[in-house]
């Protein structure tokens, strides 16, 4: 019998036995998991995450449907007029070359990201890495020399004991067969304790917050920069800025989740 078939049969048998003796609930919908899984989220909840379509801003990856809806009502110029670029990228220059994400940051995915952020569920980090690897492959694939996680401030790292972006980035690097370099960036200024930040506060909070580590070799590297969530792009841009200043050839951002901004916010 084929070795792959044998492995699948053994895995299914193990799932069946564990599900009988150690039943568990999905951490999102609280329904009993139908089979044993290292990821404590059921298939239905995983399937509820909404992967981004190809209808996105070519620079920052912002979903463009909202802009097209406005165009239909005649309120603003459509994205096609500028090469499918969103309102923010028409007004702001990011330091990264482009950014891409797996899915919209909403409902179940928000809760899944919080599980990873505060409970270190490493199989979930592996699952997210798999989704990001597929995103990277769809991009042509993304050309990179190293995978670098967005770092936490040392105080937050001590408190939490790990960096959720690092959990994802390390596994992604393995899937892409690229070096994992968590040592290239450091965060010197902590994020404000305020939970919800305005657009201006987000950009102010990352100004001067990151630096390349002394002795880190960045010259001419093509960096794949990984984080959990992209909201305004301020964090990725701040990291990309210091990497480019240190000599990086290019910086592409990759995040699990993408917060879709309202057009009214984009126009500010």
Map the helices and strands.
Blueprint: H1 3-21, H2 43-48, H3 65-72, H4 87-91, E1 98-104, H5 107-119, H6 122-138, E2 146-149, H7 154-160, H8 164-176, E3 185-187, H9 199-206, E4 210-212, E5 222-230, H10 234-245, E6 250-258, H11 263-266
Parallel strand pairs: 1-6, 2-5, 5-6
Antiparallel strand pairs: 3-4
Helix pairs in contact: 6-8
What do you see in this structure?
The protein is an alpha/beta fold. It has 2 domains: 3-44, no CATH class; 50-266, Rossmann fold, CATH 3.40.50. 42% of the residues lie in helices and 13% in strands. The chain contains 11 helices and 6 strands. A 4-stranded parallel sheet has the order 1-6-5-2, with helices on both faces. Helix 6 crosses helix 8 (164-176). It starts with a helix and ends with a helix. Residues 16-22, 69-82 and 263-268 have low confidence and may be disordered.
Written as H for each helix and E for each strand, in order along the chain, the element string is HHHHEHHEHHEHEEHEH
CATH architecture of the largest domain: 3-Layer(aba) Sandwich
The strand line-up of the biggest sheet is 1-6-5-2
Mean pLDDT: 84
Radius of gyration: 20 Å
Uncertain runs with pLDDT below 50, 5 residues or more?
16-22, 69-82, 263-268
Task: Briefly summarize what is shown.
This protein is of the alpha/beta class and 268 residues long. The protein has two domains: 3-44, no CATH class; 50-266, Rossmann fold. Helix content is 42%, strand content 13%.
Structure keywords:
disordered C terminus, two-stranded antiparallel sheet, Rossmann fold, 268 residues, 2 domains, four-stranded parallel β-sheet, alpha/beta
């Amino acid at each position: 019998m084929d070795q792959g078939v044998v492995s699948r049969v053994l895995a299914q048998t193990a799932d069946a036995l564990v599900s009988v003796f150690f039943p568990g609930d999905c951490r999102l919908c609280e329904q009993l998991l139908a089979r044993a899984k290292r990821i404590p989220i059921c298939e239905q909840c995983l399937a509820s995450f909404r992967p981004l379509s190809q209808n996105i801003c070519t620079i920052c990856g912002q979903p463009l449907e909202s802009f097209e809806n406005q165009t239909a009502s005649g309120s603003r110029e459509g994205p096609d007029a500028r090469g499918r670029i969103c309102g923010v990228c028409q007004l702001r220059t990011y330091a990264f070359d482009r950014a891409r994400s797996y899915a919209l940051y909403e409902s179940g995915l928000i809760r899944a990201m919080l599980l990873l952020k505060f409970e270190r569920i490493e199989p979930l980090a592996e699952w997210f890495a798999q989704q990001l690897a597929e995103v990277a492959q769809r991009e042509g694939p993304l050309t990179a020399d190293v995978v670098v996680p967005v770092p936490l401030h040392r105080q937050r790292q001590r408190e939490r004991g790990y960096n959720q972006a690092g959990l994802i980035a390390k596994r992604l690097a393995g899937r892409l067969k690229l070096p994992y370099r968590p040592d290239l960036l450091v965060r010197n200024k902590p994020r404000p304790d305020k939970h919800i930040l305005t657009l201006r506060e987000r950009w102010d909070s990352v100004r001067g917050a990151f630096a390349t580590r002394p002795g880190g070799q960045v010259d001419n590297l093509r960096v794949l920069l990984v984080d959990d969530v992209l909201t305004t792009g301020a964090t990725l841009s701040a990291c990309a800025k210091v990497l480019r200043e240190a000599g990086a050839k290019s910086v592409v951002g990759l995040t699990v989740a993408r917060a879709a901004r309202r057009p009214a916010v984009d126009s500010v």
